[in-house]
Amino acid sequence: MTAGENSIAGEWQAAGSEFFHSVDPRTRQPGETRFYSATAQEIDAAVRAAADAFASTRLFPATTLADFLDTVTEEIEAVADALVATADAETALGDVRLNGELARTTGQLRAFSTLLREGSHVEAVIDTALPERTPLPRPDIRRMLLPLGPVAVFSASNFPFAFATAGGDSAAAFAAGCPVIVKGHPGHPATSERFAHAINAAVSACGFPPGCFSLLQGDGHDVGRILVEHPFLEAVGFTGSLRGGRALHVVAAQRPRPIPVFAEMGSINPVVITAGALAERGDEIVQGLAASATLGVGQFCTNPGLVLLPAGEAASAFITACRAAIMAIEPGILLNAAVESGLAQGVARSAALDNVQTLTREVRSRTQGFSYPHTVMQTDATTLIENPDLQEEHFGPVTLFVTWDGQDELDRVLRSLGGQLTGSIHCGRDEAESLRPLLDAMREKVGRLVWNGYPTGVDVTAAMHHGGPWPASNAANTTSVGSNAIRRFLRPVAWQDVPDELLPEALQNSNPLGIVRLVNGELTQGTLS
Ligand code: NAP
Fold first, then answer.
1. CB-CB neighbours of 359 under 10 Å
2. pTM for this model (two decimals)
C-alpha cells in the first residue's frame, strides 16, 4: 500500500493540501494515490530533526555507520521485487534494467561500508612537532576529515534507485556521518516511499536517531527551494538537469550563510572517431555506437550525443550506416511528459539552425506511452563552433554527427566545447601515439576519458570519476559515483598542539583504529611514540 505521505524523522505525515499523482509512462494515465507535497512546516521539521540527529551521528564510529549502511542494504534486498515492480510502473525502465540498477545501488552502499571499515576516508595526516627547527619551531599539526551536517539529496528521474532515495548521494552522506533529507523526484514518488520504509527500518534497527532520514515529496520547485534555504542545512547533493542544478546552486549561494551544492548535470559526451578507426573497425563501431546512443532510450547523462568524424567518404558511409542501425532499434518508452516535450522542443531548436540536417523522419509512434523517435542529425564543425546552442543536451535518443576538416578544426571544436562528464576516442591500431595531443585536449574538458569504448555504463569503483567542468557539474573537483564521493560531505579540520587524549582516535599516537595515515610524509599504519 502506498500512502502518499512524507516521512519526517520516521513519522509519516501529509499536512498539506497540494498533491500530485505518479503517472504510468506506458499509458500516460495517473495513478490513484495522492502524493502530498511537503509543507514549509514539514520541511522545517525534517531539517531541525536532522540537525538534532547530527549531534549523535557526527560522533558515531565508522564501524557503526558501516553497520547502518549494511542494514539499509539488507532492508532494500528484502523488498527487491516490490521495488522493481513499483519503479517499473512509474518509469517503464523494465525489469532487466531495474534489477541491474538495484544491484548497483546495493553495491554502492556496500562499497561505502567497506570503505568505512577500512578507515582511510578520514585522510588522517600527522606532521609531528619539530621543536629544534630554526628560525621557528614547528608545532604538532594533525588533520582529518569530519562530516558537514544535514545534507539535502535531490533524486534524478532517470535513476529511480542509483541516483535517488537510497542512491549514491544518500549513501555517501550517510557514510560521512551526515543525516539525509531526500527531495523525492515527482516522476517516481511511490518508489521513493518504498525506499523510505527500508531506510526507516534500518534507522530503527540500528538505534539511530530518527531525524537522520526524512523523505519530502513534491512536484513543484518550492519544496526544493525551501529545503535548500533552510538555515540548518549544510550541503546539497543534486543529480538532474542543468536548469535545476543551476537554480539550486543560486539558491544556496544567496543564503545569508551559503552552503555547497554538488550538482551533477547534463552532458553531450563527445566521441571522436579517427580515420584509422573508421577504416579498421567502422562496422563494429556503428553497432556499438547505435547501442550506446539508444540505451535506456537515450536517457543517460553519459549518452553519446555528439560524434566527431573526419570529413570524407568514409565518414559519410559511417553516418549512413549508423543512422540505419539506430533506426533499426525500436524506440522505448520515455520516463515522463517533461522528457517528451523537452525533447521535441530541443530538437526543433537544433534542427531549425542553418546547416543542420535531420537525417531521420518523424515517424508515428507505435505506442500510446511517452515516446520520441530515434533522431540523427548532422552538421559541420564551423556550425557547431558558431552555435553554442547545439551543445544543449537532448535528454533522449538524439545523436548529432559533426564532420571536421583537418586537425586544426578538430582542435577548435574541442576548445569550443563546455565541460563534459566523458570524452571518448576511437582510433586505429597504429594511431595511439599520434593522438596524444587529442587526448590531452580532451582531458581539459572531461571527467572521464574512454578509449575505444562507449561512455554509457559507469562502474562504481574507488577510481571512478563521475563529474566534470561546468556544465557537467558545478564542482569539477568532486565525483558523484565511486567511493571518493564521500569527500563532498566531509570537511578538513587541523588540530595544532592539542594533547593526545583530546584528539579524535584517528589522530591519536597509538592509532587505535589501525588505519593508514600519512605521518611526516610517509604512509603508515603504525603508531607514534
Ligand atoms: P530535474 O528536472 O533537474 O529534477 C531533479 C530534481 O530537482 C527533482 O527533484 C526536481 O523536483 C528538482 N528541481 C528541478 N528544478 C528545480 C528548481 N528550479 N528548484 C528546485 N528544485 C528543482 O532533472 P531530471 O528530471 O532528473 O532530468 C534528467 C536530467 O538529469 C538530465 O539532464 C540528465 O542528463 C541528468 N542526469 C545527470 C546525471 C549525472 O550524474 N550527471 C545522472 C542522471 C541524470 P521538482 O520538479 O519537484 O522541483
1. 16
2. 0.96
264 catalytic per annotation: yes
* Lateral strand order in the sheet of 270-273: 357-358, 375-380, 398-404, 306-310, 270-273, 420-426, 446-451
Crossing angle of the two packed helices 95-118 and 80-91, in degrees rounded to 10 = 130
CA of 327 to the centre of ligand 1 (A): 28
At 526 the three-state DSSP class reads coil
pLDDT tier at 364 (50, 70, 90 boundaries)? Answer: low
How far apart are alpha carbons 6 and 227 in whole angstroms?
A: 14
Taking the CB of residue 220, how many other CB atoms lie within 10 A of it?
A: 11
C-alpha cell at 291: 547501442
Q: How many CB atoms lie within 10 A of CB 354?
A: 8
- Select from 90, 97, 154 the residue to mutate for testing ligand 1; criterion: most ligand atoms less than 8 Å from CB: 154
Pairing of strands 270-273, 420-426: parallel
- List, for residues 43-101, the tens digit of each pLDDT value: 999 999 999 999 999 999 999 999 999 999 999 999 999 999 999 999 999 999 999 99
- Nearest 5°: the CA angle 396, 486, 157 is 25
- Return d(Cα 64, Cα 53) in angstroms, integer: 15
How many other CB atoms are there within 10 angstroms of residue 395's CB atom? 26
3-state helix, strand, coil in the chain (%, to 5): 40, 20, 40
Triad 225, 391, 461: Cα angle to 5°? 70
Q: Report the length, in residues, of the chain.
A: 529
CB of 218 sitting under 6 A from ligand 1:
yes
For residue 246, pLDDT over 80 is answered with: yes
Q: Per-residue pLDDT averaged across 243-251, rounded? A: 98
Please name which of 163, 209, 175, 169 lies closest in space to residue 66, comparing C-alpha atoms: 175
Do the beta carbons of residue 354 and residue 314 sit within 8 Å? no
